[in-house]
Design goal:
single chain; globular; 2 domains; 5 strands; alpha/beta
């Protein structure tokens, strides 16, 4: 198993600092691992000793030993037929096909960026009925937040969408506490009022799950779990494809996790929807 495979697999024993290091290594693989301990630590938002302890947990005696193994893997890949094949470009005339291939690559990279254990932690948190869930998005990610909240609302109670909390809304902030789980979408061109909201609810004791890009929103340092999604595309606009795929994967996992509980809730909601429908009007002939 390669170092990259080990990072992708993850482990239940990883600390929060370990997970930040893993995400940085996968986001800029292998470049981040070839920099100094201090540089990797700074990029990951952890201390130098955290990086040293992490590579030891991977099975290396030292950081230089880790880098030596990483260089060996890079050298092997650079000389493999697969690496040459991946450099072959599609004809420019097939722009539609090239774009779809780019989408497939986004999904592949999304899987590489996020250990499976991180998805499992998110599903576990969402399945906890003791949490009240609030979902928050920015200007361009608001629809992703709404899409997730709509599905969560069908599967479990106490789910809502929220807007960034303004300075004139202390009563809104006061309502947050340790019972709250706040899911935040914040991709590059990070939104200041979303970041401030994250800081404020964290101070109130709320937990945070973050959806962001490989460069990571500043909210990552506050989050209990972060899911990264590449956003580059062939168009001038960032892609939300990977973020949408993450949402659907989590919804699928949560549905399976809740099982009959989710099914019973959906049956109840359907019955209530029937009652809310207006009675059919009947035309009466003279």
């Amino acid at each position: 198993m390669t170092i990259k495979d080990t990072l992708i697999r993850g482990s239940d024993s990883l600390t929060k600092a370990d997970k930040l290091i893993v995400q940085e290594l996968l986001a800029n693989y292998p470049t981040s691992g070839l920099s100094t301990v201090s540089d990797l630590a700074a990029r990951s938002g952890v201390s130098d000793p955290s990086v040293v302890r992490f590579v030891r947990r991977l099975g290396f005696d030292s950081y230089p030993a880790f880098q030596k193994a990483l260089l060996a893997e890079v050298d092997e890949r650079m000389n493999s037929p697969l690496s040459m094949f991946s450099k072959v470009k599609q004809p420019a005339k097939d722009s539609f096909g090239r774009y779809l291939e780019g989408c497939a690559d986004l999904l592949r990279r999304t899987r590489e960026l996020n250990p499976a254990s991180e998805y499992e932690r998110v599903v576990e948190a969402l399945a906890d009925p003791d949490f009240r869930i609030s979902v928050l998005g920015g200007r361009y990610s608001r629809y992703l937040a709404g899409y997730l909240a709509q599905h969560l609302g069908m599967l479990r109670a106490d789910t809502r969408t929220i807007e960034p909390i303004g300075e004139e809304e202390p009563y809104v902030l006061e309502a947050f506490g340790r019972r709250d789980l706040v899911i935040i979408f914040d991709y590059r061109r990070y939104q200041a009022d979303v970041i401030r909201t994250a800081e404020r609810v964290r101070e109130r004791g709320s937990r945070i799950i973050l959806f962001t890009d490989p460069w990571r929103s500043p909210i990552a340092r506050l989050a209990d779990a972060s899911l990264l999604a590449p956003v580059e595309s062939l168009s001038p606009f960032d892609s939300t494809l990977a973020g949408m795929a993450q949402i659907e994967a989590i919804v699928a996992g949560l549905t399976a996790k809740l099982g009959h509980v989710a099914e019973a809730r959906m049956q109840t909601l359907e019955a209530l929807a029937v009652k809310l429908r207006p009675a059919k009007e009947h035309n009466v002939e003279d």
